[in-house]
Amino acid sequence: MTRIVGVRFRTAGKIYFFAPGKNEIKRGDHVIVETARGIEYGTVVGEPREIEDEKVTQPLKPVLRVATHKDDEQEKKNKEKEKEAFKICLGKIEAHNLEMKLIDAEYTFDNNKVLFYFTADGRVDFRELVKDLASVFRTRIELRQVGVRDETKIMGGIGNCGRTLCCHSHLSEFIPVSIKMAKEQGLSLNPTKISGVCGRLMCCLKHEEDTYEELNKKLPFVGDQVTTPEGLKGDVHSVSVLRQRVKVLVEDGDEKELKEYPVEELRFKRRHRKEKVELSPEELKELERLEKEEAKGGKSKIDDAN
Fold it and tell me: Which of 74, 214, 217, 252 is 20 to 30 A removed from 118 (C-alpha atoms)?
């Protein structure tokens, strides 16, 4: 067994594992660790624990120390320097007339490197910009192009639900999202309805997918024939997934009437949901477009500390 502790370097960032050693560490502590980018200041997200050796990527780097008051002050100074670095880089980008949008500036804790995150429609030749920035900051410079999801994760914002965006508040890694999830949840396939602030499919579609899959297993499809508690035959008009109720168009003599029943009171032949998740040609075309956009996102490039 190997003793590890989880550390984050930014809000809702990826969790990296380090060896706590003899340090007395608890959740919420700030620690100083060595990463591939250099010495970094991070936050402990859980108590030290033991896991199986095969689940650990070796070599496991150690926690150098629990952050001291001096370390905390250094981190505050770095945050202030990042604001100034951001302004300087903006000016240099304009001076070099580069088509790129600067998103964030970040100093490593030891000031050994300054990272600038940006978005652009295509590839950008920023070699001269890097030379210019290196002459100003006199340290290593790294420019990292990120996608729209990373941009939104850094910038933050408010979602359609009225709450802070998942990617900025708690979602440490981007999860695969499919337009079929929207179909399963009975949502409109209008891109403006199922896209988030970043313009990609909303991450919350994945959060609720398991619940909808389980609830949908108990429901008939729209158009299916069912038998009501009164012994009447009827066709399913609509279903309420969360309420688990079904509206049925039944024939009572010469009249047709729309009645609502709890699903457990109806009798019908159950089928696999996959039989009804087929999309129309128009929906398939929209699916292809949105999923191509999803594929462009790829792995997050802002959480690359190890």
Answer: 74
In whole angstroms, how large is the CA radius of gyration of the chain? 27
Pair of tokens at residue 84: 């100034």
Question: 65-97 as b/e, with b when 16 or more CB fall inside 10 Å?
Answer: ebbeeebeebbeebeeebeebeebbeebbeeee
Question: Which of 23, 24, 27, 35 shows the shortest CA–CA distance to 6?
Answer: 27
For the purposes of burial, counting CB atoms within 10 Å of the CB of 267, is it exposed (0-12), middle (13-18) or buried (19 or more)?
exposed
| Residue that the structure tokens 């003793």 belong to | 3
User: Does the global pTM surpass 0.85?
Assistant: no
Place of tokens 């929906």: 283
| 259: phi then psi, degrees, rounded to nearest 5 | -125, 150
What's the 3-state SS for 156-174? CCECCCCCECHHHHCCCCC
Tell me the per-residue pLDDT of 164-193, one tens digit each, with 9 for 90 and over.
998 898 888 888 888 888 888 888 777 788
Better pLDDT: 63 or 306:
63
